[in-house]
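Contributing new records

If you add data, match the layout below exactly. Sequence lines come first and carry their own label; structure lines follow with theirs. Keep one chain per record. Anything else will be rejected by the validation script.
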Amino acid sequence: MRKIVKRYHPPGTPPGTLLPAAEGAAPARIRLLEYTAERCKEIAVESLDDCLPYLKTPAATWIHIQGTPSPTMLKQLGQKFGLHPLALEDVQNIGQRPKFDPHPEHYFLIAALPRSADNEVHIDQVSIFLGPGFLVTFTSNGEDPFEPVRKRLHAESSLIRGYPVGYLLYAVLDLVIDAGFRCSKNSARKSRHLEEAVLDSPSRDTVTTIHHLRRNLLVLRRMLWPQRDLVSAILREENNLIDEHTRLYLRDCHDHAIQVMDLLENYRDMITSLMDIYLSSLSYRMNDVMRTLTVIATIFMPLTFIAGLYGMNFGNGNPAASPLAMPELNWYFGYPMALGIMVAVAGAMGLYFRRKGWF
C-alpha cells in the first residue's frame, strides 16, 4: 500500500542528471493556455516546439505537463526557459518535501497535492516554474487537478486574467492547499463514525480502522507541514515576479495552510483519544466479565462446600459404624433438605450482591 510514490536518483549520480522515465509511468501530455485581460485561449500542442511562438507574445502563457516528462523534454524546457538543471532533476525526483528555490530569472516550487482514493490518502508532487510572463506546472499523477483554475480563467469576470502571471501561481497554490481541507474533512467524517463504533460496539476491526486513519493523518501532516514555510518563503522573497496585490492573496493562502495544519493536529488528537477510549472500553468490558465470573464463583463456593461435606459419606449412613458418623445421610428428607439449603444460600448471596451493585 503506497501513499507517497517516490523516485530518487541512484547514489553517486552527478547533480543535474536526468534519467529515463520509469517503466509504467504515465506518458507526458502538454496543455498550453494563453491569456490576456480581454481573452483566454487554450491551444492544442503536441510538443514543446509548438509552444515557442506563444512565448514571444505579450500574453501570459501557462504550460501544464501532466504525467512523466522524458529527459529530452526536460532538457528542452531548461534551454528554452533558462531553468536550472538541479530544478529539472527535482521534477523527476517525485515524493519530495514542499520547498521554494528562488533563481535569478525564475522561481522553482514543489508543492504536495493530497487526494483521497480507495479509502487511502495519496500525495502527488506538483512542480512549478514561475518566470516573466510564463508559468510551467508538472503533476506526477496522470490526472489533471487544475481544471477549476482553467474554468476561472475562461470566465468573463476572471480576476486571474486581470493580473500578472504571479496571480496564476497564487491560484494554483490555493487549489493545492485547499485540497488539504478536503482530505481533513474526510478524516473528520471517518473519526465521527469511529467514535460511534468505539462507544457502541468496539471490535478488532475498530482498532485496525483507527490505526489506518492515524497513519493517513501522519502522511498528510508530514507532507503538508512544509507548505506553510513554502508560502512564507515566497512572501519573504523580494522580486518583481510577485506584485504587491498578489502578495495579499498569498498571505491568505498562508493562513489556509496554517488552518489545514491546525485541523490535522486536532484530528490526530481526536484519533489518539479514540484509541484511549477503545482501550478503556475494552478494560471495562473485561472487568465486567471478571466481576460476573467472580460473583458466580463466590456463590458456588458454599454450595461446593456443602456438596463436598456430605459427599465424604463417613459411616455410609450407618450410625452404628461410629458415633461421629453423619446421621443426616439416613434422613428421609436429607437430600431435599441439602438442596434447599443450597438454594437458600445461593439466593441469599445473590440478593446481597445485587444490593451491593456488584451485578
